[in-house]
Design goal:
The complex is a heterodimer of chains A (139) and B (763). With 139 residues, chain A is mostly helical. Chain A is built from five helices and two strands. Chain A has a two-stranded antiparallel ribbon. In chain A, helix 1 runs antiparallel to helix 2, helix 2 crosses helix 3 and helix 2 packs parallel to helix 5. By secondary structure, chain B is mostly helical. In chain B, 72% of the residues lie in helices and 2% in strands. Chain B starts with 7 loop residues before the first helix and ends in a 6-residue tail after the last helix. Classes of the chains: A mainly alpha (139), B mainly alpha (763). Chains A and B meet through helix 2, helix 4 and helix 5 of A and helix 26, helix 29 and helix 30 of B.
Amino acid sequence: MNSVILRAGTRYLATLLLLVSIFMLLRGHNEPGGGFIGGLIGATGLILYAIACGTRDARAALRVAPETLAMVGLLVALGAGLAAALFGDPLFTGQWLFIGPTEDSKGLPLSTVLVFDIGVYLAVFGSVLALVFSMEDEI
Amino acid sequence: MSAVISDPVEATPPAIAAQPGGNGVVGIVPVLFALALFFGFLSLGPEIAQGGRYFWVYEWIPSQGITLSFMVDGLSLTFGLLISGIGALVLLFSNTYLAGHPQYGRFALFLTAFMVAMLGLVLADDLILLFVFWELTTVTSYLLIGFSHEAGKSRRNALQALFVTGAGALAFLAGLILLGFAAGTTRISEITAAGTAIHAHAFYLPILVLILAGAFTKSAQVPFHFWLPNAMAAPTPVSAFLHSATMVKAGVFILARLHPSMAGTDAWLWSLTTLGAITAVFASVLALRQTDLKQSLAYTTLMALGTLTLFLGQESGYAMTAFATFLIVHSLYKAALFLVIGSVDYSAGTRDANTLGGLGRAMPITALAAIVAAMSMAGFPPFLGFIGKELKYAGALAVASEPVLVAGAVLTANSLMFAVAGIVAFKPFWRPGGALPKTPREVPWPMLAGPVILAALGALFGLNPDILERALVAPTVLSLTGSENEVKELKLWAGVNLPLVLSIATFVIGGAIYAAHRPLREALIALDAKVPSLDKGWDGFMDALKAFAALVTSAIQTGRMSHYLATTFTTIAAALGVTMIVRGIPDVRTAFDGFTWTNVALVALILVGAAETALSKSRIAAIAALGVVGIGTALIFIVFGAPDVAITQLMVEVLVVVLVAVVMLRLPPLSSQPTKFRPGHALIALAVGATVSLALLAVLTAPLDLRLTAYFEGASWTEAFGRNIVNVILVDFRALDTFGEVAVVVVAALSAVALLKTPRGGK
């Protein structure tokens, strides 16, 4: 679709969507959001880019093949699940680390659960993009 | 069955000038590995000869009571020595036979993997573990038979062996599970220690039938025999190893392993005796009919397996001693002869019995090994085969039920064996033959080592049978009967008795058959052409199976989306509808509180969207209207306080619109004609709408069980440090499920990409 207005707008919209997607991913544990939703929102951003500028530019902007992203996501999620075994827990048990706890807050929470959610994000993001890009290529 | 099966490896043996040890490290390491195993087993020999046993146990799946448990006793030591010893010689032989073969590394890997699987099978002390190794031998055997995979015949024969033994293995697995259930343990040593207690169990007969199905397919007993001669499509060393000395004996092995607890009933006695005797006679007649030397040997292997099965049907000490001795004798001479055939093929370029002749001068050492091995096979004194044959007659005469019949069958089979030994190992070397494709020369030493050592062992044990008796036969009989006193002495000269008379009769009849083998063979070939063959029946069966599959596929997979959708929705409506009719139409809730105009507006929005989707004349408009339906649904989620679900629904809706739009643009424009009314589709739509609505309304009448919700609400923050319950469930409580779902998403996307990238019109 060759529209100057859409292309100009897309630069900002796609960036915004990607940022929102990461925001959604990170807030997911306490507010509405999470890896699945984040992955879908992020994918929408690049699909918008692909509609405005073509899939070749979108692939170039992504730098990594979406199929690779999907597989990496799956591996990350699996790794996060397997990590529990290192601590002697059943697989996929969340492992937590709180950085800098104070009296009234637990500190910055880091966890394998977050890593798992990032894996889900990448898997969904990559899968959707792989599908949409190759369909657009076919047309 | 064709008279000559020739595969590429066999048709073009490598150049004679090949260097011994021509595959470098890949060729040598497996030989050393097998040798190390052999000497390892040998070092256990003294303890086993004293009647000891070794156990090695490791907890594998404790929740199912399955252990990685291994046991070395007389029976498994005998098999272990045969497998590793013959394995080493065969690997050494192959290294020269297939010198410079581009896929030798693969070959050596398959053969070594098979050897390890086979060792695991004979050492396993757990029924499930035994089955795992059983299937590993099936798979590696499939790979080895199909090693010359460029040839269609090889592939077909490999598949046939896989299917026949694989089908038997399914029955076998069921039998093993039943046996484990009936005995209360899967440990074989415990089952056999319990003696014949299993006879009284209600499952005894099913267990017997299922296990025999596995053993008989694996050991190629009639009527499952047809795959074994076809398996000769494998390179000759493979035939020597798998299809004479080891794998086909797995079926016999399991019968021997379970002998202490399963044997002794009429069902056991008659099934093993009958099928064993039929196989032995039938196979030795067919062995005479072949002109390809390898095929001849393949059928004599069937005869040996039949004889071994026949003896396992009995319980007498004579039969058990005969079993143990003949097991060893047969492995020694049969592997030697197979390797000799390989050498002959390598050197002379053919395996045709009618063409071969006069090789004795060119290949004196091979000829000598062949003669010694064949004398053992034919049962001449002073070779081990003679002792084996005497014991076979003694064992047959000791059969309580039908000694005359069994001894007659053994006599017939042995006489034919005598004749085949002459055809295979005497004629090609010492009688004049036709013009050979190549000028024969003696083969290099690695190819001589196998036949010479194996043949020499046959002679050594023949002259000193007490070594073999103490080291292997007595411990094996101990494994079979649980008693040390059952073993019968192995001796060359047992005095003038009935077995000796039968032996002499064997020589006379066998000599006569050998003298007349050409006309006999012609007659058999003519007869064979008239009898419908199981092998052809197999092809017919496979063709029918494929035709049926094609029929079912074309009926179900029409390739039209509307058919698939109609099928799916009809199934949904039928499943719900039938359930409601059978269980009674449930009470539905008709009164609702909390009625608001917002809800009405949302439902109206969805209805309008749905109507526009169905009635629109423009695809773009229809797609947009479909989006309205989806967004309406997302709004409902928001109204009822499920923001996560709403966002997901919204995003999915956006993506669906994009995807559908991309696809729809390829389709021709909708016709301007009014859409044809399809009563069938309308009926399906109404049925789905009605049943789903009823089901949902019925769900509302039941009080909602909030226990899970309460649990997650309570545990979400305290245990998983998250306030968004939906996400905490997804990534923590149910992380494994999520992982599975994400994996499905990725696999589905990759499959779709692969489909899209496939050029049209291609496969």
